[in-house]
C-alpha cells in the first residue's frame, strides 16, 4: 500500500467513512472533521508510521492532499513509510 | 423558595435497564451480582474478588454510533441512557430554544472515566505504548458525563459534576434541587453515573479489605444489616432525574412522580474512612428540618446500607438517634443488596427505588438477610417486598471522607 492509500485509510478511519468515500481532494470540512478529529488523525498517522509528527508540519492543512504534500517527505524520510512499495 | 418536583427518571443498573424492569427485579428480591464478564479472563484470574453487580445485556452499539462511542467512556454512556429515559418520561425528548438556557445538568460520579484511564495506563505502563490517543482526556474527565448530556440535549444552564465518592449523586440531586429553588434553572437533569469495574479499581478496593467474598452463590454475597454480612459488592450503572420547578410542571401538565422536599448535607470532619454516628444523624436532621417534617412523617428509609461491618451499625445508631421510638416503626431497606454499591451513582439509583416504592405502594426488600444482628435491630424489610402506603421517603448516602447527603421526597 502506498503512502497516499495509507493516509486515505487513516482519514477514513477517523472520519468513520468507507474508504471509497474519502478522496485526495476531500476537505476535512467536507468530511465533517473538526479540530479534535484532526488531532485524532495525527495520532492515527503517528501510530501507522511510528513517527512523531510535529504540530507545525500540519498547520493550515485543508484537504487530504495537503496532508500527503506536507507529510509525505517527513514520513518517507523516517524510513518507516511504505511509500512506493507494492501493496 | 420555589417548590421542586421530579417529572422523569431513568436508570441503568445490574438488575435492569429502565425503571420498570429495574424495580421489578428489586421486588423479586434477588441480587444481580455475578462473575464479572467485562474484565479480560487473564486479569480476572488474578483478582481475589471476581464478582460485581455488572450491567449485562447492554449493547453500546444499540444506543450510540461508532463515532459517538469514540468519545464516550462507559460512565458517560450510562448517564446518557438514563437521561434519555428520564427526558422521555418527562415528555421532553427535545428541549425548545426557550427551555435550553433554563435546563442544567448535575451528574455526580466517584470514578469518572476510569475504564478509559485504566486501559490507557495499561497500554502505557505494561505495553510501553509510545503515545496515547487524543480522546483519552475528553473521555476520562469527571465532568464528561455532565458535558455529554448537556451537549446532546442543548442543556445550557448551570452544569456541575459533584464528586464526593459514594454521596456524589445525592449531592448532585440535592444541589440541583437548590439550584431550582433559587430560580437559577427551571429544570435540572440530575443524578449520577459510575462504571468502576476495572482490574485496577477492584485491586485498589481489595487493598481496603471491605469487599464481600464470592461464596457459593454470588447473588447472595451482599447482605446489608444481616449478622453474617461480609462487605461491599461493587456495582455499575446510572440514574438520572428530571427535576423541575413545580409551577413549570403544572404549566406543562407534566406527570409528577414526587416532590423533593428536603436535603441535608454535612461532613463528619473526623476520619477518612470510618464514619461517625453524629455526622449522618445530623445530616438526616438537616434534611427533616429542610422538609419541615418530623420522624412521624417518614414512611420508608432507603438506607445507605453498604453491608460493611461498620456502616450498617453506624447507620442504625444514627437512625435511632434521629427517629427515636419511630425508628422501630419505619421500614428501612438497602437495595444495594441487589444492585451493589454503585459508588457515586448509588444515591440516584436508590432514589429510583424510593420513588417507585412510594408510587407503587411496595417497598423493595433488603435481600440476602439471614440473621438479626443485635447491633442492627431495626426493621430492614428482610428478603420479601412489603406493601405499604408511603407518603414520604428519606434516602441516605454517606461517603468515605465523612461527606453525608440525605434527600427527602414526598408524594404530591
Folded structure, characterized:
- The complex is a heterodimer of chains A (87) and B (412).
- Chain A is mostly helical.
- Chain A contains 3 helices and no strands.
- In chain A, helix 1 (3-15) packs across helix 2.
- The longest helix of chain A has 15 residues, at 35-49.
- Chain A is globular and about 25 Å long.
- Chain B has 412 residues and is of the alpha/beta class.
- Helix content of chain B is 35%, strand content 18%.
- Chain B has helices spanning 19-27, 41-44, 60-63, 66-70, 74-89, 114-126, 136-140, 144-153, 168-181, 199-208, 246-252, 278-291, 309-323, 336-339, 346-360, and strands at residues 4-13, 16-17, 34-35, 51-52, 103-108, 159-160, 187-194, 237-245, 258-267, 300-302, 332-333, 362-363, 386-387, 392-399, 403-410.
- In chain B, strands 1, 2, 5, 6, 7, 8, 9, 10, 11, 14 and 15 form an 11-stranded mixed β-sheet that branches. In chain B, strands 3-4 form a two-stranded antiparallel sheet. In chain B, strands 12-13 form a two-stranded antiparallel sheet.
- The mean pLDDT of chain B is 97.
- The interface between A and B is small, with 10 and 10 residues.
Mass-distribution shape of chain A: globular
If you average the pLDDT of chain A, what whole number results? 86
The helix/strand order of chain A is HHH
Helix run count of chain B = 15
The strand count of chain B comes to 15
Given as residue ranges, the uncertain stretches of chain A (5+ residues, pLDDT < 50) are 81-87
Q: What is the helix content of chain B?
A: 25-40%
Largest sheet of chain B: 11 strands, mixed
Q: What's the quick description here?
A:
With 87 residues, chain A is mainly alpha-helical. Helix content of chain A is 48%, strand content 0%. Chain A contains three helices and no strands.
Amino acid at each position: 500500500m502506498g503512502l497516499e492509500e495509507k493516509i486515505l485509510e487513516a482519514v477514513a478511519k477517523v472520519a468513520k467513512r468507507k474508504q471509497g468515500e474519502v478522496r485526495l481532494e476531500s476537505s476535512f470540512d467536507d468530511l465533517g472533521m473538526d479540530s479534535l478529529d484532526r488531532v485524532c488523525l495525527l495520532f492515527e498517522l503517528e501510530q501507522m508510521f511510528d513517527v512523531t509528527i510535529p504540530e507545525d508540519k500540519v498547520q493550515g492543512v485543508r484537504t487530504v492532499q495537503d496532508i500527503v504534500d506536507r507529510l509525505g517527505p517527513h514520513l518517507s524520510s523516517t524510513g518507516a513509510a511504505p511509500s512506493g512499495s507494492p501493496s | 423558595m420555589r417548590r421542586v418536583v421530579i417529572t422523569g427518571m431513568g436508570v441503568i443498573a445490574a438488575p435492569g435497564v429502565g425503571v420498570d424492569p429495574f424495580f421489578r427485579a428489586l421486588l423479586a428480591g434477588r441480587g444481580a451480582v455475578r462473575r464479572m464478564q467485562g474484565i479480560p479472563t487473564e486479569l480476572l484470574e488474578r483478582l481475589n474478588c471476581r464478582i460485581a453487580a455488572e450491567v449485562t445485556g447492554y449493547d453500546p452499539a444499540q444506543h450510540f454510533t461508532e463515532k459517538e462511542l469514540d468519545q464516550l467512556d462507559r460512565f458517560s454512556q450510562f448517564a446518557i441512557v438514563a437521561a434519555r429515559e428520564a427526558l422521555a418520561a418527562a415528555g421532553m425528548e427535545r428541549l425548545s430554544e426557550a427551555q435550553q438556557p433554563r435546563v442544567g445538568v448535575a451528574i455526580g460520579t466517584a470514578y469518572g472515566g476510569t475504564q478509559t484511564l485504566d486501559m490507557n495506563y495499561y497500554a502505557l505502563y505494561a505495553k510501553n505504548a509510545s503515545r496515547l490517543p487524543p480522546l483519552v482526556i475528553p473521555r476520562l474527565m469527571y465532568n464528561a458525563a455532565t458535558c455529554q448530556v448537556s451537549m446532546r440535549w442543548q442543556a445550557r444552564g448551570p452544569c456541575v459534576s459533584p464528586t464526593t465518592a459514594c454521596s456524589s449523586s445525592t449531592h448532585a440531586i440535592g444541589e440541583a434541587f437548590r439550584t431550582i429553588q433559587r430560580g437559577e434553572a427551571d429544570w435540572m437533569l440530575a443524578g449520577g453515573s459510575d462504571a468502576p469495574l476495572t482490574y485496577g479499581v477492584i485491586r485498589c478496593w481489595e487493598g481496603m479489605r471491605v469487599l464481600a467474598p464470592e461464596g457459593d452463590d454470588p447473588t447472595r454475597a451482599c447482605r446489608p444489616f444481616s449478622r453474617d454480612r461480609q462487605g461491599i459488592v461493587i456495582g455499575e450503572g446510572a440514574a438520572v432525574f428530571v427535576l423541575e420547578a413545580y409551577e413549570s410542571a403544572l404549566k406543562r401538565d407534566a406527570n409528577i412522580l414526587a416532590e423533593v422536599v428536603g436535603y441535608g448535607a454535612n461532613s463528619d470532619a473526623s476520619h477518612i474512612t470510618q464514619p461517625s454516628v453524629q455526622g449522618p444523624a445530623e445530616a438526616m436532621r438537616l434534611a427533616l428540618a429542610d422538609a419541615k417534617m418530623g420522624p412521624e412523617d417518614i414512611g420508608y428509609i432507603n438506607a445507605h446500607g453498604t453491608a460493611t461491618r461498620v456502616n450498617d451499625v453506624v447507620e442504625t445508631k444514627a437512625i435511632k438517634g434521629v427517629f427515636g421510638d419511630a425508628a422501630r416503626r419505619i421500614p428501612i431497606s438497602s437495595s444495594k443488596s441487589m444492585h451493589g454499591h454503585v459508588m457515586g451513582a448509588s444515591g440516584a439509583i436508590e432514589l429510583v427505588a424510593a420513588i417507585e416504592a412510594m408510587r407503587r405502594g411496595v417497598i423493595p426488600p433488603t435481600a440476602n438477610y439471614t440473621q438479626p444482628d443485635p447491633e442492627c435491630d431495626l426493621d430492614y424489610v428482610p428478603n420479601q417486598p412489603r406493601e405499604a402506603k408511603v407518603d414520604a421517603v428519606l434516602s441516605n448516602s454517606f461517603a468515605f471522607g465523612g461527606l453525608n447527603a440525605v434527600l427527602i421526597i414526598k408524594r404530591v
